[in-house]
Amino acid sequence: MSHDSQGSGASSRPGPQWTRTGGPSRAQSRRLDAAFPVSGAWRDGDPVGGRRFADIGALELEAGGHIPAVRMAYETWGTLNEAGDNAVLVLHALTGDSHVVGDAGNGHATAGWWSQMVGPGAPIDTDRYFVVAPNVVGGCQGSTGPSSLAPDGQPWGSHFPIITVRDQVAAEIELTRALGVRSWQFIVGASMGGLRVLEWALLGPEAGVGVESVGVIASAAQTPGDQIAWAHPQLTAIHADPKFRGGDYYDAAPGDGPHVGLGIARSIAHTTYRSAHEFDERFGRISQGGEDPMRGGRFAVQSYLDHHASKLAKRFDANSYVVLTESMLTHDLGRDRGGVNTALASITARTLVVAVDTDRLFLPAESERIARYVPGAQARLLHSDFGHDGFLIEFDQLGPIVASFLAEANRSA
User: Fold this and answer.
1) Distance of CA 153 to the CA centre of its chain
2) What are φ and ψ of residue 326, in 5° steps?
3) How many C-alpha atoms does 48 have within 13 Å on its Cβ side?
4) pLDDT by residue (tens digit) across 47-91?
5) Residue 26 pLDDT > 70, yes or no?
6) Percentage above 90 pLDDT, the chain
């Protein structure tokens, strides 16, 4: 997006000379509040909220090296039965966290992101199931990540190692053992969470943890080139922000963190989360309030993206955004398993695959591939105007699909 301003030679240009009146300048419209925390990460000493914590020891990493001490933050609902086999694992997306259900406040910047799916009488019924939602390793809401303290007592920052989806699942397997869960009746996740679901379907049984059924929503078995391309300018925006400081910014003053880069990354990403139809129908070419795009103001859709950029910069961490995005880019279920199709064919858990018809981040074809090669997989399609974010919105469709899948599993048990 251009930040051109009229210089001293503007009057020599032919045509009408616009004067910026009646609306904020581009710089004004994007000015960040100086009260922004340098990072939106949860830090020790902050209100705990519904989080619980488990120390799982050292984590050996697929790319080499290890994290010497890993803490997992998680939340639970319901009660684990004596057999330890009524457990459901819910895995969050890129900027999600363990707060699946509950209000904002008391340590949680946002309300639960899947509250209509989890709870008493909900599709994932906490009167029946013991539901666990961990914050992923590399995240910023209580589990070990770049904002956590390294062995030297300083935040990891730029020294946080490269992690993969398999590393994240390895940590969740250790959390499973710490919780006394012998098998998961259902593991479900969307987007980045779906990547971990697929790895769980293979790594869980290899580690002696049962995986009875899985739900893979708006996800993929292998990150395609198109998604890598969309991620590249997001990562570049963060690295190019001078306040990113190579990843070592945690001692900066409030308002002096890499909020601009993180905000730009979010704007790019959010464009892929929604659909062209929604943007055209909801915003079209409408200007924002009293702003005039012909005089430096914004269109309404630009204001919408700025709003979501600001929200994320206040509650998330730029390093975690980089680390988790890079873990998604290296996702390949077929790595060292004879290829993607061979890996999918080796999944033995009952499998539900859900796509969103307008998804332009995880294209429906990616879900079709999973359903085609996983033996006996059930495929379902959500019809939505909201694109990828349909999994967070279309509960009237998704709820019955998940409830029916679980009911069928219970009847056959």
Assistant:
1) 28
2) -65, -35
3) 7
4) 999 999 999 999 999 999 999 999 999 999 999 998 888 999 999
5) no
6) 88
The string of pLDDT tens digits covering residues 349-407 is: 999 999 999 999 999 999 999 999 999 999 999 999 999 999 999 999 999 999 999 99
Residue 17: predicted pLDDT = 36
Question: Average per-residue pLDDT in the chain?
Answer: 92
d(CA 74, CA 61): 21
Please enumerate, as own/partner, the contacts of 76-82 that have beta carbons within 8 Å and a separation of 24 or more.
76/52, 76/130, 76/131, 76/132, 76/133, 77/101, 77/118, 77/119, 77/126, 77/130, 77/131, 78/126, 78/127, 78/128, 78/129, 78/130, 78/131, 79/130, 80/130, 80/179, 80/180, 80/181, 81/130
- The residues annotated as belonging to the active site are 191, 359, 388
Cα distance between residue 109 and residue 59, in whole Å: 28
Q: Which two tokens stand for residue 149?
A: 């303290």
pLDDT of residue 36: 82
Those residues whose C-beta lies under 8 Å from the C-beta of residue 114, and which sit 6 or more positions away, are 90, 100, 101, 392
Residue whose structure tokens are 């996740």? 189
The C-alpha atoms of residue 196 and residue 181 are separated, in whole angstroms, by 18
* H-run or E-run covering 328: helix 318-329
Half-sphere exposure of 341 (CA within 13 A, CB side): 4
d(CA 108, CA 121): 24
Predicted local distance difference test score (pLDDT) of residue 269 = 98
Q: How far apart are CA 114 and CA 148, in angstroms?
A: 26
For tokens 């570049």, the residue is: 236
Beta bridge partners of 91: 189
**Contact yes or no for 366/344 (Cβ under 8 A):** no
- C-alpha 163/C-alpha 330 separation (Å) is 9
